[in-house]
Fold:
Amino acid sequence: MGAGSGKELKQLAEHGCVAIGLDVDATALADCRRANLPVVLAPAEHMPLRAQAFDGLICNVAIPYTDESQVMQEIGRILKRGGARGICATMDSVIFCDMRWPDRVSACASMECGRCSIRGSTA
Structure:
């Protein structure tokens, strides 16, 4: 989510992972397509992806520019039950959570689950 230049997509492909990038920046996605990276032009709040279809998700910086609560619900919708644990890097902090998806979605949207930790400034 927030595919940008496709850096993470390339790294995942190099490690044998099948990944799809999502971003709202058509220019960045055009660059990804030229590099033969699979990408979708869509907002994180409305991912045109099947429910419970993904093992994990990488998001670097994008969440602060979205409706965070809605995005957390979308992330929970697309990830498989019992899927990957969440790590979300933002510009000011990194949020780590040891709950499995989608159990963390509503709790972590408000950061009240008691199992999340924040590294860095949140101001």
